[in-house]
């Protein structure tokens, strides 16, 4: 049975470490590189009826995701992974990751941790921590 491993990515070193971990530990799996464009970064609020982010901002975020996908897909291919999928969603990262895993037969989530601690973790929250708590599949957090 082929596993499907979801690897949420951003521009961080931790995301790259997560991709490398997934390739090393699940070489026969389909690796699903997953990026979430968060409208909150562009000033969108849930109360607004019309998002305030521009089409230009959105296209720039899509291009950044595509470039990152290319980098991480190359790591996967070098590691012998034959099947790499690329997915971009728009929304809140924690919700998008958990919902995608539930709806697309994902067997494992491998993600990076930004390693925040103390007050910054309390104030900013942790995407990895929330995914670990809410996911219905195993989650590996790579530091």
From TrEMBL:
Domain UspA span(s) in chain numbering: 1-143
Pfam families found in the cross-reference section: Usp
PANTHER family tied to this protein: STRESS RESPONSE PROTEIN NHAX, UNIVERSAL STRESS PROTEIN
Family named by the database record: Belongs to the universal stress protein A family.
UniProt-recorded name of the protein: Universal stress protein
Species name: Haloarcula salinisoli
Species lineage: Archaea, Methanobacteriati, Methanobacteriota, Stenosarchaea group, Halobacteria
